[in-house]
């Protein structure tokens, strides 16, 4: 059982090492620090219960990101059903501002522009332009063809360029 | 040579195969407009990655790392059982509704006064917020923000709030909003700078001790307000 223990510890160590990046993706997806940390928490919990399905030697980061984005989509659907928890788009945007360490701080342009994107485009933009995945890797995480990922990415970034000014 | 928008972006990202990359490179070099678009794509990437980079430097909240430490302890079974029951009785997830308001307000640096002797009831402004504001519907720039609402073991409605660098928990009784717990940014004699995450965890922990059940959702909160928190 010794070998198994070592493996098991390596799995946890691997996830621990990924935590800062997982948080960045979670906060980017949910556009909110607290929601992002909740998303991280349920992702870790899910990863621990599903660890048997992780194949050692394959990329742990992609595996975790996939779990996270799937949980996020589930949560989005659940939220859609719970209409009573609806927060107006404007309030949601303001609350979700990454730059809102102080309530008085102006909502950042980037937060605003990212908030205006459809979920699938925002996800593609985050995976490639923030997390640094190749198109192929990002498509695998999302579970879509590369061409689809590419076109979501282009639509997302063109919308961002328009909103942020071409000089970005 | 025809060049799609997708291809141009892929070129900017270095995603084309070497042969195609070289072709596009020649076309772009000869066309200032295309060159400008490529530069814009790259500048956008740099701006986005700079925007999210601070999250990597923010300390990971302890409770996230703890999930993995506990689970990682596979050697000592008794310890493991103990830690699992600790997980089960741990801070409940307050639901997504509590999150947004917390993020906006409690990222302020707060300090816990060591000599709090705050007695009494919420002042006018805080009381007004406690009476009127709903977590999901309050203005983003509200001076006093409500973080979450719950019922304590006596059945009284309690609400956690934040105002500038202060925050706390108040419960409604016949007199008004009695302040139970106060985090005060003006008292720094303990000298401990608290990370926003740990303050939040602290306040959540206090709320959890006090609460019977979980935080009110938007509907329950609106209903409680209609009943004037009685």
Mind explaining what this structure looks like?
The complex is a heterodimer of chains A (168) and B (230). Chain A is an all-alpha fold and 168 residues long. Chain A is 72% helix and 0% strand. Chain B has 230 residues and is α+β, with helices and mostly antiparallel strands. Chain B contains nine helices and four strands, in the order H-H-H-H-H-H-H-E-E-E-E-H-H. In chain B, strands 1-2-3-4 form a four-stranded antiparallel β-sheet, with helices on both faces. At the A-B interface, helix 1, helix 2, helix 4, helix 6 and helix 8 of A face helix 1, helix 3, helix 4, helix 6 and helix 8 of B.
The oligomeric state of the chains shown is: heterodimer
Reading the helices and strands of chain A in chain order gives HHHHHHHH
* Total count of strands of chain B: 4
How far apart, in Å, are the first and last alpha carbons of chain A? 54 Å
Q: Globular, elongated, flat, extended or rod-shaped: what is the shape of chain A?
A: globular
What percent of residues of chain B adopt helix (DSSP H or I)?
40-55%
Number of beta strands of chain A: 0
Q: How would you state the average pLDDT of chain A, rounded? A: 82
CATH architecture title of the largest domain in chain A: Orthogonal Bundle
CATH overall fold name of the largest domain in chain A: Rna Polymerase Sigma Factor, Chain: A
Class per helix and strand makeup of chain A = mainly alpha
N to C succession of SSEs of chain B: HHHHHHHEEEEHH
What is the CATH C level class of the largest domain in chain A, in words? Mainly Alpha
What's the rounded overall pLDDT mean of chain B?
72
Radius of gyration of chain A: 17 Å
